[in-house]
Amino acid sequence: MRLLRRCAGLALPLLPLLHGVPAFAQSQGAPGGVIGEPHDWQISLQPGYSPVMRDVVWLNNDIVTPIIVVICVLVAALLGYVLWRFNAARNPVPSRLTHNAPLEIAWTVLPALVLVGMAIPSFRLVFFENRTNDPYMTLNVTGHQWYWEYDYPGQGNLDFMSNLIPQDQLKPGEPRLLTVNHPLVLPVGENIRILETSGDVIHSFFIPSLGVQRYAIPGQTIETWVKIDQPGTFYGECNQICGLGHHEMPIEVQGVPLPQFLAWAKLAKQQMAENGSVPPVSAVLPGGTVVASADQGATTEVAEATHREVTPPAGSSPGKGD
Q: N- to C-terminal Cα distance for the chain?
């Protein structure tokens, strides 16, 4: 037992260090204002930029990880003690003891208590991420092979498709297999109800830094929600294997101030009606002022971003806004 106490005493000072490893990985900033994407050598969760994801990070870093570390150290110490104390040299005649009631009760009750302690915050988080009671707007998300469809019913049923930008068409600074031709634009600081379904097979709408993870199932509508804390770009992807083009279903979310979102939605609805194109959010200033549109003699940069031609993946069909 003295050996066990020594091992535990040596391990406890290491817990803050082990707890700080994920924080170090999260502190690596992304260039160009992009804050919701994976980084090289990242070993933990992405930083949380929504109430749900902040709770997920807290549960992982402050509850689950310390418990795992303590259990691993305890089991390793017990194994080391058993190898040292009960080896053949020290015990030429093995004991015939087969039962120890107090010990058996302890190793049954203690793990159960650990599971209960982990279950309480886990269940609370599951219910918290399920839905919001006071949404500012509703977003309909439909998964297809292999692209996403976004519908804004509160913005005049604005509806467009979002396709992967192939690697040979990427611009400098755009991440491979994460950049799309028409990003999902959402307002910052507002509760947004997300209703998900699928038009063919099972998909999964997954945005790590926003804590969004829900399956899109044919014939069913599954609800979740998100509230983006600050402006930025947040990347995700379908993480449910859905066929040959599974890797071609990224999600790019651009969080912008509410006035900018409202002005962009109005401009997008107008351009969709006129020529079927979706303007970039950069066509509108954060205050809501429209810079230019493709039909108003926009600059080359904005005009090119307004309508990026993308060849649909094999087997998929082009949609609105392509």
A: 69
